[in-house]
Write a sequence for this structure.
């Protein structure tokens, strides 16, 4: 007898929320001996265990400490941390006040909130293709259509995007454009200033917000910082409160993801709406974690961590690029990132990277993310994402050699 | 010249997400000398500062500790905490496995997820009236209609609910029923076993899930525990995996809200969907906080905390009931809760509790939540919620005396 379990009628959106490959792959992190180039996982060797322990002890001592650390707190976030982030945004060319900042549970929650705030079912979200898988997951819960922006000379005009999005019966329209301009997830590529200006032009022509996912931007190994989209728009519009760029920041890649602290920097009007979403969604980010994060970044500590992380991940990137050059057959090509965690590979058209992953796990004890997962349109079957952030340099060499062996056979 | 700031077109749902009175009232907690009967705020005197500090130090030491505590983790939650909760559910009459549990950022996120999973715009959510304000905020983001369930003899039949919800053009229907069966927020009232069985009957007749918000159920001062709706349905349906009751638990009222740890216990099929929502919404709850919460509740520590909290809040409830009896004019009536944080007051029809709040703050330095905030239909203008959880007993006496003075004048 087959047991049939009762199930409710799920909301229409549940049909868009499927199990992800990244999720299944994260489970492989525990598999003995596996060399994982999969998740965008920071190296725990950089985690500030001792400083965090000390910061928790301090946050939980004193008469006022525990009261605020373990109590409910305001939805917009811990005021000293918001002020620190506002000051930090000046280093990204943005003159922000604490009121321009809302604390989120990592960048993933920021993506969820922006989908929730901006997408009515049937609206169109403009994305690069490929783009961050987690953004597709967050946005898809709000039932958008997707259309592809390119920053190159083949870019379409605003009119063609608006026409494609328009649906007279429902009033659907382009709701926003989303980009990862620096060391992109998944390609590792960085937009030039001209490309950034072109994206801003498009956002103005369409009269929509431009979402700037800045998760990796602090981790530049070489070359000069590009201006943030938000800084460019503050210049163009006159001020942050006039800007249409919504900036998503996180401490997950530079300090540690386990505290779940990220932020959104935007005009006060938009932040006020986001604070209401935060309240309805989970009231507030963990108070004690916000206090601890503030202690971990204040007084030059953030800058010191970033400097260390840059050197650390640069060596790993170099190890990966060296191994790719040494072992990969000539039919395989890849990007050369100037920062961040990712290299993007193209393998011959005939190779399915999803099939390759199965062989890689079974025959080589190596993992990566197949490129199709980053394409809203199902393309990219001969692409894959490699992250060099987690494995040791020696394992990067071994893992790439094994992967190249599968591609050379 | 009036400055006009650029604003995006917000999603349709944004019109349903307004600033809440609770939010504004939480700001009053910092006002010097105010006696607040407003938020459902636990008394920080009960917070385990020292034990938490020790638990953070332990979680962050050792070779494996920091790696898992500060790293990304699985979306369903920290396995030892899920197992602890599964065992805990046995004390609530529910035989659960770890796979029946998903960790959320407090109960508020559980409410958000259940709205997200179950509500298509136009669907009807059945609620008691009044009900928890935060549930209305969470659900409203998913654009439902609301209809009122009563557990008394005037209860309507399933057919009348289904007919009211049906909207042929969109396929709208009753999506779920939501109740706080023990020491309800906001009324402090507890459902009898007969009333619980009646609610289950209704959920079966409508073939919908029944959401059991159990935020306060551990804090019983006197009388016997009522069976949980989930336990009743496990008996009726045969097992938790066959059950249509979705149980929402939290450590916010019994341990501390600042770690933001709650849970949902439900059938595996429903939990699997919720894990996908967790991943899309914020990836995972803070790893370090989950490890620390496990240490704060394991080995009998939860039961010891609950025993202390019961005695503590019972004294405060007694102080409030004593003060109400002593000072309130005869035209004012109130509920007598057997547990939890709240007493619900009815004042004469001619009195607006929203107007009373303004006077209470200005003239008496006392705060509470006007009852209208808990009514989806705008009713309840002559009701108000008093929480006795936060103020000292002496302040409860003073605050109720002052409030009674305003009502007697």
């Amino acid at each position: 007898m087959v047991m049939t379990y009762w199930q409710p009628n799920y909301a229409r959106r549940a049909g868009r929320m499927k199990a992800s490959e990244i999720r299944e792959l994260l489970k492989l992190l525990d598999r003995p001996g596996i060399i994982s180039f999969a998740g965008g996982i920071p190296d725990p060797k950089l985690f500030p265990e001792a400083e965090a322990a000390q910061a928790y002890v301090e946050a939980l001592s004193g008469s006022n400490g525990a009261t605020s650390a373990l109590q409910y707190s305001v939805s917009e976030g811990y005021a000293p941390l918001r002020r620190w982030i506002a000051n930090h945004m000046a280093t990204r060319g943005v003159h922000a006040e604490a009121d321009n900042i809302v604390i989120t549970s990592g960048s993933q929650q920021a993506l969820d909130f922006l989908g929730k705030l901006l997408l009515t079912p049937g609206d169109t979200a403009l994305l690069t293709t490929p783009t961050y898988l987690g953004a597709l997951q967050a946005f898809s819960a709000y039932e958008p259509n997707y259309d592809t922006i390119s920053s190159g000379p083949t870019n379409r005009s605003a009119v063609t995007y608006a026409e494609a999005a328009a649906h007279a019966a429902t009033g659907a329209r382009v709701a926003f454009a989303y980009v990862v301009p620096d060391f992109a997830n998944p390609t590792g590529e960085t937009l030039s200033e001209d490309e950034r200006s072109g994206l801003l032009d498009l956002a103005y022509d369409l009269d929509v917000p431009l979402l700037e996912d800045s998760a990796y931007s602090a981790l530049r190994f070489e070359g000069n910082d590009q201006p943030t989209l938000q800084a460019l728009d503050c210049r163009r519009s006159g001020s942050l409160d006039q800007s249409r760029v919504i900036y998503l920041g996180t401490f997950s890649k530079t300090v540690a993801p386990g505290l779940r602290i990220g932020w959104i920097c935007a005009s006060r009007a938009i932040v006020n709406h986001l604070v209401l979403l935060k309240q309805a969604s989970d009231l507030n980010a963990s108070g004690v974690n916000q206090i601890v994060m503030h202690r971990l970044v204040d007084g030059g500590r953030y800058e010191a961590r970033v400097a260390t992380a840059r050197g650390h991940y640069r060596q790993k990137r170099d190890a990966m690029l060296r191994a790719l050059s040494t072992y990969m057959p000539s039919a395989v090509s890849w990007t050369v990132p100037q920062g961040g965690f990712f290299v993007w590979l193209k393998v011959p058209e005939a190779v399915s990277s999803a099939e390759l992953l199965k062989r890689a796990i079974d025959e080589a004890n190596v993992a990566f993310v197949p490129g199709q997962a980053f394409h809203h349109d199902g393309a990219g079957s001969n692409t894959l994402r490699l992250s060099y952030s987690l494995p040791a340099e020696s394992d990067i060499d071994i893992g790439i050699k094994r992967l190249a062996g599968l591609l050379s056979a």
